[in-house]
Amino acid sequence: MVGPAIFRSLCLVFLLATNVVALVWPTPNPAFQQGRSAKDFIQPTASGILKSGLFGCVRNGGSRFHEGIDLFPLKRDRTGEAADPVYSILPGRVVHISGIAGHSSYGRYVVVEHDAEKPVFLTLYSHLSRIAEGVAPGSRVKSGTILGIMGRSAAGYTIPKSRAHLHFEIAFQLTDDFQDWYDRQAFKEPNRHGNWNGMNLVGIDPLAFYEAMHGRKEGGMNAHLKALPVVARIRVFTGKTPNFVTRHPALVTRSFQEAAVTAWDIAFTKYGLPVQWTPRFADEGLTGRAGDVQVLAYQQRLLEGQSCKRVLDMGASGPRISRGTLDDLKKLFGFR
Predict the structure, then answer these.
(1) What CA–CA distance (Å, rounded) separates 15 from 220?
(2) For residue 234, which of 263, 270, 207 has the smallest C-alpha distance?
(3) Model confidence over 69-117: pLDDT tens digits?
């Protein structure tokens, strides 16, 4: 756990779900809580451009998506390696540990499920130099529990000492059946990470979440998601209830337990998080075959201004569901 003085400097106290909890910054750097600039905690890439360490289309001139934020260390050991501890931001359960650096571009990483929250969400802490003793899949953690030590572990590329950092994500798991989708792909590497493979996670901007919580003392994640702009609404014709829905009932707009569902209307955020699910019923007279997918509405200005990871691709003939969104729909519904 974090020491009392440091804990007070790193946490925000507010209402999440039904309990008052402390939301902790994931590193010992107090710059965010002190209202200082992002340059005081964000680690940019070799380009030196600050936004390259932020969330979104910030890499390769805007063509490459970055799933989280990169946070630099305050402390280094005598060899120059990062030495900052990495903290769980909220109470939860450790669901995955990748302890072998060569098994992922994330290097050594830990995933924590915040299962007391509504909706349930995940946090991911990567490029660790080592995992803390006692942190193992299934273990419970508190706000401020040390998960590991910041580092520069990674597979397939080298992070220099000077740019050691914590890559931190806030994400949602698309499906409990990710392996089925993975097995149908032509990947050469085995899936060593189960349902916590990065391809099965869709996230939100961690910094925007902290900024929202800094100004709001209640509501938590659910209120934050409801405030995010919706860029597209897509209808999927199926009677199946995806496990995303059963996992995140707080995102469903109306009861469907006693009705015959024929389709789902799904609202997506800018980078593809399905934040609102509306079941449609047989007595509503919708026209479509099982497996049909329709674009119901979209924000053209927002989509055209986005340089990567679009939910819809905008063309001369109108919007088209992007390849990435189609892949995510296959994961969500088990479509082939």
Answers:
(1) 6
(2) 263
(3) 999 999 999 999 999 999 999 999 999 999 999 999 999 999 999 999 8
Give the CA distances from residue 68 to residues 23, 58, 154, 164, in Å, rounded to whole numbers and listed in that order.
Answer: 17, 11, 15, 15
In this structure, is residue 151 part of a structural domain?
Answer: yes
Q: Quick check: bond before 160 cis, omega within 30?
A: no
Q: How many CB atoms lie within 10 A of CB 110?
A: 27
pLDDT at 2: 61
**Strand partners of residue 175:** none
Looking at the structure, do residues 269 and 157 belong to the same domain, yes or no? Answer: no
The type of residue at 196 is W
Distance CA 63, CA 308 (A): 5
Position 323 pLDDT exceeds 70:
yes
Same domain? 56 vs 176:
yes
- The pLDDT value recorded for residue 257 is 85
150 close to 82: Cβ distance less than 8 angstroms: yes
Mean pLDDT of the chain: 93
Residue 116 in tokens: 């007391």
Claim to verify: residue 247 and residue 114 sit in the same structural domain? no
